[in-house]
Specification:
single chain, 287 residues, alpha+beta, Tetrahydropterin Synthase, Chain A, 7 helices
């Protein structure tokens, strides 16, 4: 688990380093001018070693960036505060970005729950929330997110049909339901790597080219049937309204045969694809 590493302000340690260098520069000529020559060499060696030790602990951290500190292979903590810092000397400091990243999968060809081949792609927005897991839990957390995102999208596509067969069944075309399910699955998959999934959305969804024309024809047929159903339903209502108005206002008295003929003519006019061509009956000619 992530924990805070030991750190000191880099400016404080820089001041300490300057004091050490100044002291070495002052003491070395002093002892070198005296009979105790070995003391001067000792001062020079100690000063140089101390300088090299202190210098290895300095590092600069940018905003939304962290450094995972290791001391001879042992994890000692993480520094995630921007600025100039000093930490354990001779330690390795691995940089881990805390910025929000996004990954868009390629267009994957998979089969939905009905067995129809579809093309699907998604975008995933993520960030690191545990630097220790991101650094040591997986080999490469960026590549890990990419692989798990594609795997989750493939699994999601097999759970839902492209189009719902009834009103209560969710489908891949319902963006809100699919996105929430994809986000939940991705969070479970990438938690091992210390990654938090902020959002995921389907960016491309279509039938595979080999069945696209057939499915388009089926959709068009369904749309035509639905439209015809609405037209017939409206036409029947209009015919019923016309007959009721004629009877209420006593415009004409129609027997059952004439009513049937009138209903037939009105339905032809209202449900036809083309404009009706009226035929004016001027009476019967007797030779």
């Amino acid at each position: 688990m992530e924990r805070r590493a030991f750190r000191v302000s880099g400016f404080v340690m820089l001041l300490v380093l300057l004091v050490e260098v100044t002291a070495t520069a002052v003491l070395f000529p002093y002892y070198a001018s005296r009979p105790e020559a070995p003391a001067a060499a000792t001062v020079a060696i100690v000063g140089t070693i101390l300088f090299l030790v202190l210098v290895t602990g300095f590092f600069v951290l940018s905003p939304n960036e962290a450094r995972v500190v290791q001391f001879f292979g042992r994890y000692v903590g993480t520094v995630n505060t921007a600025g100039f810092h000093w930490t354990v000397p001779f330690s390795t400091k691995r940089s881990v970005s805390l910025r929000v990243g996004n990954f868009e999968t390629a267009r994957l060809k998979v089969s939905d729950s009905d067995g129809n081949p579809v093309e699907i792609a998604a975008v995933v927005v993520w960030r690191v929330f545990d630097t220790a897991k991101a650094a040591f839990g997986v080999t490469n957390f960026v590549q890990y997110v990419a692989v798990q995102a594609e795997s989750a999208v493939r699994h999601l596509a097999t759970m839902y049909p492209y189009e719902a067969h009834d009103s209560g069944q969710p489908s891949l075309r319902e963006a809100t339901v699919v996105s929430e399910e994809l986000t939940r699955e991705l969070r479970d998959r990438v938690a091992l790597a210390g990654i938090e999934v902020l959002e995921s959305r389907i960016t491309h969804l279509a039938y595979a080219p080999e069945i696209a024309q057939v499915m388009l024809a089926r959709q068009q047929a369904s749309a035509i049937v639905s439209a015809r159903f609405k037209i017939v339903e409206g036409a029947v209502g209009m015919v019923q309204l016309a007959l009721d108005r004629l009877r209420e206002e006593d415009v004409v008295d129609l027997d059952e045969e004439r009513k049937a003929q009138m209903v037939s003519n009105l339905l032809v006019v209202l449900c036809g694809d083309r404009s009706a061509q009226p035929v004016v009956n001027t009476g019967t000619l007797y030779g």
